[in-house]
Amino acid sequence: RPFRAPHHSASMAAMVGGGLRVRPGEVSLAHHGVLFLDEFPEFTPQTLDALRQPLENGDCVIARANHRVTYPARIQLVAAMNPCRCGMSGEPGYRCLRGERCRTEYQARISGPLLDRIDLRIEVPAVSASDLIRPDKAETSAAVAQRVARARAMQRERLERLGAAATTNAHCPPSVIEAIARPDAAGLTLLKDASEKLAFSARAYHRVLKVARTLADLDASETVGRIHLAEAISYRMSAERMAQAA
Q: Residue 126 falls within a domain, yes or no?
């Protein structure tokens, strides 16, 4: 699978395609693979917002005066960023040099509509020396790969029975994901409460269902339970919003 990691100075044309002689951009070159964007807020806002269509529809449309060109762009977006421009916000024993304004302004470079299309948002703490020295007891990559393969097989078989064109939960339209990701009673109550309290958009609601359905598949569970929805909802929330919801 392709892996593309453009520099944050990349232009919008370099990212989604364009030029005098239209060529595919990094998004299309990463089709069926990973597009990794390090220093996410350092890309221009226009370049970042150009990712909205590929993340929603899986393609890039480049319009010219007398023709249109469509390139495939079904990608897995992986982005990384510091919490603020100086990188010190949230670090134990340190203070952001410009205070809360630094964090707020830096993160505001990522628009709400783009953030709404990102399903998993994880704050990663700094790794201490003791973490590096301590023996690794985590699940191995090989074991994770086996669970992912089983989950994908479950998804493929389920969607084939429905006659759906999609082969994974991520690519299901809303009508299909509602049919295959019906929560149990406790999960439905949690989803309703979270949707109202956190003001989920219709897009966010269906994306939470997709993630919860996938988490259930990774557990080899046909039922989407409260635990799966709670985890899926947590991935859409920053630490501040989690505290607000609590």
A: no
CA dihedral 81, 84, 88, 89 (to 10 degrees): -110
User: What's the token pair of residue 236?
Assistant: 């859409």
Q: What single letter denotes the amino acid at residue 156?
A: R
Same domain as 145, residue 110: no
pTM higher than 0.85: yes
Tell me the C-alpha distance between 35 and 6, whole Å.
8
Give pLDDT tens digits for 156-185.
999 999 999 999 999 999 999 999 999 999
Going by pLDDT thresholds of 50, 70 and 90, the confidence category of residue 241 is low
What is the Cα–Cα distance from 70 to 130, expressed in whole angstroms?
Answer: 50
Give the pLDDT of residue 134. 80
Return the SS3 of 81: coil
Cα–Cα distance, 25 to 70 (Å, whole number): 11
Residue given tokens 């999960």 in the structure block: 187
Domain range for residue 74?
3-118
Domain identity same for 104 and 162: no
Instruction: Give how many domains the chain has, as a whole number.
Output: 2
Banded pLDDT at 95 (limits 50, 70, 90): confident
- Quote the CA–CA distance of 72 and 77 in Å, as a whole number: 14
Domain contains 238: yes
H/E element, 24: strand 23-24
Domain boundary among 118, 153, 172: 118
CATH code for the domain of 29:
3.40.50.300
